[in-house]
Amino acid sequence: MTELNGAESLVTTLAASRVELCFANPGTSEMHFVAALDRIPGVRCVLALFEGVATGAADGYWRMTDQPAATLLHLGPGLANGWANLHNARKARSGIVNIVGDHATDHVPFESPLKSDLNGVAQSVSHWVRSSQRAAEVGADGAAAVLATRDGALGRIATLVLPADTAWGGGGVAQQAAAPAAAPQASEAAVDAAARLLTALGGQAVLLLGAAGARDERAQWLAAAIAAKTGCRVLAEFYNARMPGGRGRPGIARLPYAVDATLARLAGAQALVLAGSVEPIGFFAYPGKPSQMKPAGATLLTLAEPRQDVLAALQALAEALGVRAGQDLRDGRPAAPAALALPSGALTAESVAAAIAATLPEQAIVVDEAVTTGRAFGPLMATAAPHDWLQGMGGAIGFGLPCAVGAAIGAPGRPVLALEGDGSAMYTLQALWTMARESLPVVVVVFANRAYSILQGELKGVGAQISGQKAIDMLTLDRPHLDWVALARGHGVPAVRVDDAGALVQALQRGFASQGPCLIEVVL
Amino acid sequence: MTELNGAESLVTTLAASRVELCFANPGTSEMHFVAALDRIPGVRCVLALFEGVATGAADGYWRMTDQPAATLLHLGPGLANGWANLHNARKARSGIVNIVGDHATDHVPFESPLKSDLNGVAQSVSHWVRSSQRAAEVGADGAAAVLATRDGALGRIATLVLPADTAWGGGGVAQQAAAPAAAPQASEAAVDAAARLLTALGGQAVLLLGAAGARDERAQWLAAAIAAKTGCRVLAEFYNARMPGGRGRPGIARLPYAVDATLARLAGAQALVLAGSVEPIGFFAYPGKPSQMKPAGATLLTLAEPRQDVLAALQALAEALGVRAGQDLRDGRPAAPAALALPSGALTAESVAAAIAATLPEQAIVVDEAVTTGRAFGPLMATAAPHDWLQGMGGAIGFGLPCAVGAAIGAPGRPVLALEGDGSAMYTLQALWTMARESLPVVVVVFANRAYSILQGELKGVGAQISGQKAIDMLTLDRPHLDWVALARGHGVPAVRVDDAGALVQALQRGFASQGPCLIEVVL
């Protein structure tokens, strides 16, 4: 066998460790890695024209596969360009292996243009960081990086810095990542305490689902059965990395975004039982309003932490409560399709939601970055075909289009619907090009309200008074209007603009039928 | 007088400290700052639809004004999105005050979606970081941040984190930043040593200009006069933040990009005298090639560091050498316009350069991010109308369009030409929208070679062998072609595609005449 160079040993290691996708934006320092991808089978490579697309795609890929993808990034600036979507992935608890090329080790001491505090950037967003120092160690470092992408049930961000000489140097040794440890089990004491609390409090208790508790349809059914038995309420966190929904599913409601609405929703609760969730905290702080959303004095009881086996914990809880699975637990098959009414007339939050609910194909993946426009969708989506709903978890906009890329690649054959605000879509619009190149079945709907509408609402919340043109200019995207049809076509994606609900329905139907990417600009 | 809140005290402080521009992409945490901009005159606010546009614009603004602009960014992700162009600005030694909104101080301890290692991100790219802790201190912190944007002749990156409650809290006290210290003078010993060395070595010495040595036309003339007197060669660094060029100017040549060409250019030099420059280092390392470009054994003598008063050092050196300013130093008035031949026929590196040289208006600002295409422009640009040439200094692509925004705002009335590769322009194409909104006179030329051409060259340099389709796909921007005319129009910028030199000439002439933004896609 020919001796491997470091880059070859790394690609071989990734392939042997089930890292089968690499979302890449390479530069000079990564050329040997690119060359190795050419020669060694097992790792598919997808080009992104901006690093935030690569990192967001890796997030979406994990959410649909529970497997880490690699990203390939160019020194400190490349990693920094991917930082915001790594932050989002971190909050979504997605596992990602970043391969970041660096200068050759003997070039690093010099103040070259691309020299930066690469380690500082990496540390600020990664759970695990290592810089390979010799070609012979690159394989082992890569295997360690893959292993570091998991902590129990959770994904983590691992960043492996690959100096150019460790990529081109000989003596590489490929490895295979060790099998990750299984997610730890919730304690019997926690299960018993949860059972006693829910029995005692009934309707004054909330069973709050998060992580696998919201993500696994079986966990949702268990929670619904526990609620039926004990009278407790079941809610999911406001943000969820992936949440099955639609017809024939339990229809778990999520906590609202706004502080006042969340406080109202939780009012009267004497206990929150956390099943993969964490204590509800406000997205932002507002003058005179609390950061912690639970009612004063209410008990917080952790049934299972996000990193634990939440499904098993709910099964144990159901057993302790005498919930009979045969009766209370469905088998997950969707109910028969209903013929939903197709809306027509003016575009409103309701008619848009109705159009989406009525046209969504079976097993669609919905990526939700519709920000203000999307908040009204919840109830109607319960009537839509069974689907998975993916939300931005870290509050950094620019998550949606890249996540749609990764979700489509991670779940081939499933249609993807990306719901975008115009403000958020602008952050990483380069993702459209990758959708075109890879012929991904993504229907992008951009809600063109031509404003940062969320800020117009937030202004009142924080008590800021704005009246003048300077401030209004900071909150509006008019002058000029963005032309989303032109932007999409510029990236090679067909597009259409709609201004009534009937046209939206038609565009969605055509989009889902096309099996390639398309964009619909919804002028609000 | 009404009591100021913290945000109002900060805006008043910035205005009093000559920070007159704010490139902004605000979120909820920054709403009180936006409201304060509304009420308090003196700070113009320009909206960017992505933070990398805001930070790159602040870099361009400093380069044309020697004054810091503020940026307004939203927590860790907003700062991270601006990181790459802050890196570029840092390498260009531009001064910038980043105002980064953060959660209210009592909300920070909680793990909310936007909670991140904001301090870590800030430290990794800033010279100075502070987080305000009370509204009463925000004015003083802002004044300290403005002062921190300078170190002698150099600009620096200062990042002020503004928790929401320090913005909305009362008791704000506006301040004025202290006057910055003057740039330190080069030592007499350094001047004497440089004079002796140049006299002794003549043609075996290189006077290497950087920072103000390349940026100030008077410094260029002094260097040319010193060369005429001593026989030394004068060169500028490969990358320069701003470099006057064109007809009637000294026509200082720059070091080449490629290692071999640089080694050849410096061959035979027994000494490098550094006038605002630093030791030449290769951009990347390559197997078997040196990182340090100076000939082995050659002396490095620092006449003036970049932070020192380079112009004064060159004046002192000229005096020590007996160079008579009246004879050898021109007064900087451009030579009479020459009628350059207008090219026609096929688009080649030469005909493109000729078209630009022939049509460039007087006092244009050229922002050069043409990457591979731009390397051939040097000699012909010496025949163009007098202009300033601005280059990316940190190697992070996505610098050019934002820099053009800031340069146009910093130098009102001067036309701006942005030369872009298609790969680099994609990184921060959102800058086009700001050009349209602000009606900036920027002519953007995108060289559509539909590839990361630089990587195709770098491959050979690093010795990587690429033959397969997977690797080729990583280096090409085809499938699909980007349609730059559509992309520009989508952002509200008129655009045209040209495929011969005559059409390019016409498009440039029309573009410069329009006094608003336009984009020309040059299909190579």
Provide a short characterization of the protein structure:
The first copy, chain A, is α/β, with parallel strands linked by helices and 524 residues long. At the A-B interface, α2, α4, α5, α6 and α8 of A face α2, α4, α5, α6 and α8 of B.
Report on the structure:
Chain A has 524 residues and is of the alpha/beta class. Chain A has three domains: 4-172, Rossmann fold (3-Layer(aba) Sandwich), CATH 3.40.50.970; 188-328, Rossmann fold (3-Layer(aba) Sandwich); 349-523, Thiamin diphosphate (ThDP)-binding fold, Pyr/PP domains (Rossmann fold), CATH 3.40.50. Chain A has a seven-stranded mixed β-sheet with strand order 13-18-17-19-20-22-21, with helices on both faces. Chain A starts with a strand and ends with a strand. The mean pLDDT of chain A is 94. At the A-B interface, helix 2, helix 4, helix 5, helix 6 and helix 8 of A face helix 2, helix 4, helix 5, helix 6 and helix 8 of B.
Largest sheet of chain A: 7 strands, mixed
Helix content of chain A: 25-40%
User: How do the strands of the widest beta sheet of chain A line up side by side?
Assistant: 13-18-17-19-20-22-21
CATH topology of the largest domain in chain A: Rossmann fold
Structural class assignment of chain A: alpha/beta
Radius of gyration of chain A: 24 Å
Largest interface, by Cβ-Cβ below 8 angstroms: which chains and how many residues each?
A-B, 102 and 102 residues
Give the percentage of residues in beta strands of chain A. 15-25%
**Number of helices in the DSSP assignment of chain A:** 23
Low-confidence parts of chain A lasting 5 or more residues at pLDDT below 50?
Answer: none
Q: What is the fourth-level CATH superfamily of the largest domain in chain A?
A: Thiamin diphosphate (ThDP)-binding fold, Pyr/PP domains
Please give the CATH class of the largest domain in chain A: Alpha Beta
Any idea how many domains of chain A? 3
Q: Please provide the count of β strands of chain A.
A: 22
